[in-house]
């Protein structure tokens, strides 16, 4: 069963890497910029500190849904090709989203977010069609 969901597991590992990298970037930037913990970050898209914080926050917004859909799909043994492909598209789009957010590439960032959202919708549909 686990070999069948290899792509989904790869996507989960990629997401873990992205999350870890994002936390590291935000923490390192906070230390370099001498950001006091517990104090608000000035909302300025020209600030790398603000963008790194927003990239981490935005990842948190969809991460739980991704994890639920991936694990439920694996447990229900849904179509592994669709689930794996959708999960991989999501993880790659999230990686590119973070890169675009950090380097303030707005249009590409929005496109990556949309692709990731579409991948989550595909994962949802794969899970729901299994129930029908």
Walkthrough of the structure:
With 132 residues, this protein is mainly α. The protein has one domain (6-131): Four Helix Bundle (Hemerythrin (Met), subunit A), CATH 1.20.120. 80% of the residues lie in helices and 0% in strands. It is built from 4 helices and no strands. Helix 1 packs parallel to helix 3 (80-102) and helix 2 (48-76) packs antiparallel against helix 3. The longest helix is centred in the middle third of the chain and has 29 residues, at 48-76. It is elongated and about 50 Å long. It starts with 5 loop residues before the first helix and ends with a helix. The mean pLDDT is 94.
Question: What would you say about this model in short?
Answer:
The chain is mostly helical and 132 residues long. The chain has helices at residues 6-32, 48-76, 80-102, 106-131.
Topology:
Layout: H1 6-32, H2 48-76, H3 80-102, H4 106-131
* Outline type: elongated
Radius of gyration: 16 Å
Task: Give the CATH topology.
Answer: Four Helix Bundle (Hemerythrin (Met), subunit A)
CATH class identity:
Mainly Alpha
What order do the helices and strands follow?
Answer: HHHH
Multimeric organization: single chain
CATH superfamily: Membrane associated eicosanoid/glutathione metabolism-like domain
Total number of distinct structural domains: 1
By CATH, the architecture is named Up-down Bundle
């Amino acid at each position: 069963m686990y070999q069948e969901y290899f792509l989904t597991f790869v996507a989960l590992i990629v997401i873990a890497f992205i999350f870890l990298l994002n936390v590291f970037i935000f923490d390192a930037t906070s230390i370099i910029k001498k950001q006091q913990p517990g104090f608000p970050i000035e909302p300025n898209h020209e600030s790398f500190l603000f963008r790194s914080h927003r990239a981490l926050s935005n990842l948190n917004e969809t991460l739980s849904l991704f994890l639920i859909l991936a694990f439920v799909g694996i447990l229900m043994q849904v179509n592994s090709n669709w689930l794996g492909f959708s999960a991989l598209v999501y993880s790659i789009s999230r990686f590119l989203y973070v890169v675009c957010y950090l380097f303030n590439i707005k249009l590409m960032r929005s496109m990556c977010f949309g692709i990731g959202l579409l991948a989550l919708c595909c994962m949802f549909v794969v899970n729901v069609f299994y129930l029908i």
